[in-house]
Every structure is written in C-alpha cells, then in structure tokens.
Amino acid sequence: MEDILRALSEVLKTFELGESEIKIYSLLQRESLTPRQIAKALGLSERIVREKLKHLLELGLVERTLVNRGWLGYVYRAKAPREALQEIFKRIESTLKALEKESKMKLKN
C-alpha cells in the first residue's frame, strides 16, 4: 500500500506548475503563440519558455502546430481546461491501474 501511495505521489508531483507555467498557460488560452512571442509578452527568456512549454506538453495541457512562415516553427495553444483535466485524470488512472497490477503480482509471489 505504501508503494502505491508513494508512486501516486510522484505522479501528482509532475503536475506541480510553477508561476511561469501558469502564466504561459493563461496567455495561451487567449491566443496561439510562438515561444518568442510568449517570451516577449511575459518578459522571460526564450530558453525558459521552451522548457516550460515542454513540461506543459508532457502534461497534456498545451498542444503545438508546426507552421511555415518563411521558417519552420511551432505555434502553441492551451487546451481547454476541461480537456486538460481529462488528460490529467487519464494519466492518474493509468498509473493507478499499473500500480494495481504490480501489487497483485507481488501478492501472488
């Protein structure tokens, strides 16, 4: 049981969002933007914005579209809050199922 709680705690920690990530998500709810546009709007370095976008992508809170505007790049947009929450619940459910399966196997041995 402790293993399950520890693993679930680790999964939930991945959803901790910093102030910059919250600002980026909020900005992207209003319009789709490039990392450079986000950096300029929020006064952050483009490198930091790219790191935060990577985390938001991994969490399923934002999505990106490849664009060609004389250069190849991505435009990011926030998923709707309901859609984002569904992604989070799916990840938690998947983790719980894996942990349940693992604990059943341990009990059999």
TrEMBL record:
Q: Which Gene3D superfamilies match?
A: Winged helix-like DNA-binding domain superfamily/Winged helix DNA-binding domain
Limits of the Transcription regulator TrmB N-terminal domain = 12-81
- What Pfam families would the database entry show? TrmB (PF01978)
Record's protein name: Helix-turn-helix domain-containing protein
Q: To which species is this protein native?
A: Pyrococcus kukulkanii
